[in-house]
Write a structure and sequence with these properties.
The protein is an alpha/beta fold. Helix content is about 45%, strand content about 5%. The longest helix is centred in the middle third of the chain and has 20 residues.
Length: about 425
């Protein structure tokens, strides 16, 4: 082949990138293309995305290539660039959201009209979302059977980065989005940072993951989720490198949960909008309570700590996500879409399958086999933040309280200055 355009979306890397690897092996010239799509708001992820694109361009230039950036509709821009470069093919990594699938369908139709080859490759998940199916039905609805099949299914081999990338001469690379970053979070975007984090995590932390990943005040999780969301690191490579090591099975299981929700979203595209398993819930439309939850002013310290971590860092510990989600949907009886929308707005790692799949799970409308499960926030706090360090880190109003009161400040002789009373009664019973 002469020239192939590789349209990048959520696969901003060169290592273990099936579409890019095959293009570099088979074509004389390769055009890595990223289109800034105004239909997909970057929200608070703009700075992280800009850093990821800047890093990818630098890496591709070191390999002799470049990252071409355009703005507009990805289908129109990809076809236009194919005409300019006389490309014969447009390749991309497949995805599962409704928008991504419509984009793929439009791109296939446009390529057919222009007599361009169109191909989709794996790479967003470890196992392609539609590959594993139960005997009855189009997808697995319960995680444990999926995990059993997933853990024994063959996984594709991890691919090295191409040794060289040749782009057509004279092509305008286009301008990257501005790198000026608002003070939001500490995680920096890009494959270089992601691979460094992965290396250190596997070497120093993985062995303790199974025992310590739920401890809220400890650095017991990999924090790779934003890099997986943008494809700065390959989930297949993460799984392959973690498997077989001490602590590896528990960690790889979390990657399987990620794949699980992708196959759910593929089969149920309305996951962000409609109950996966409808339940007769009388949801509470209390805007003041919802606002207090968003701002971390519910009067329940562990909930407020999680919500303030989200607002300041663009990330939240997974255990805290479960606690704040259960509090919103089971205690305040506010619809899971309110929580999902807020997380989608602020989380660096928010993607459709995992964000909405997890929200429906915690609300009891999704894939949880115990839909009536209610997490007691005080009991969760005393178990996973026994000294209160996590709460004190994000709720400084309570920094002077001892561990015996920091999770239940309403039991103190006087409320801490500036900290509200609980919206609803909560105890450790």
């Amino acid at each position: 082949m002469d020239t192939v355009i590789v349209l990048l979306n959520r696969d901003l890397r060169v290592h273990d990138h099936p579409a890019l690897a095959e293009a570099c092996a088979r074509a004389r010239l390769v055009v890595p293309l990223f289109v800034i799509d105004p239909a997909i708001p970057a929200r608070h992820r703009q700075g992280f995305l800009a850093e990821a694109l800047d890093d990818l361009r630098s890496t591709l230039r070191d390999l002799g290539g470049d990252l071409v950036v355009r703005r507009g509709d990805p289908v129109a821009e990809a076809v236009r660039l194919a005409t300019e470069t006389r490309a014969t093919a447009i390749w991309a990594t497949s995805d599962v959201s409704s928008y991504a699938r419509r984009r793929e369908q439009r791109l296939e139709k446009a390529c057919d009209a222009q007599r361009l080859q169109f191909r989709l490759f794996p790479g967003v998940t470890v196992v392609p979302p539609g590959r594993l199916r139960p005997f009855a039905g189009d997808h697995y609805r319960v995680f444990t059977p999926y995990w059993r099949v997933w853990s024994t299914a063959p996984h594709r081999p991890v691919l090295p980065a191409p040794s060289v990338v040749h782009v057509p001469p004279g092509i305008d690379p286009g301008e990257l989005p501005g790198l000026e970053r608002k003070p939001y979070g500490n995680l920096r975007g890009g494959e270089t940072v992601a691979r460094r984090r992965l290396d250190l995590w596997l070497k120093l932390c993985l062995a303790d993951y199974d025992e310590g990943h739920d401890e809220l005040a400890e650095d017991g999780t990999s924090m790779l989720s934003p890099y997986l969301r943008f494809g700065c690191v390959s989930p297949s490579e993460v799984a392959a490198r973690a498997a077989g090591r001490p602590g590896g099975e528990a960690f790889v299981r979390q990657l399987c949960w990620r794949d699980f929700y992708y196959q759910v979203a593929l089969a149920f595209p309305e996951l962000p909008r409609r109950d996966y398993r409808p339940r007769d819930v009388d949801w509470n439309d209390d805007q003041d309570a919802a606002d207090a939850w968003r701002e971390g002013l519910t009067g329940v310290p562990i909930v407020d700590a999680g919500m303030r971590q989200l607002r300041t860092e663009g990330w939240m510990h997974n255990r805290a996500r479960m606690i704040v989600g259960s509090y919103l949907t089971k205690r305040l009886k506010i619809h899971w879409r309110v929580g999902g929308d807020h997380f989608a707005d602020l989380l660096l790692d928010a993607d459709i399958p995992n964000n909405w799949g997890n929200w429906q799970w915690v609300a009891g409308t999704g894939n949880d086999t115990r839909p009536n499960r209610v997490l007691n926030p005080v009991r969760q706090a005393t178990r996973f933040d026994p000294k209160g360090d996590y709460v004190r880190r994000y709720v400084p109003e309570l920094s002077g309280l001892p561990a015996s009161l920091v999770h239940e400040p309403w039991k103190a002789p006087a409320l801490a200055a500036g900290y509200p009373a609980p919206l609803v009664a909560v105890d450790n019973g």
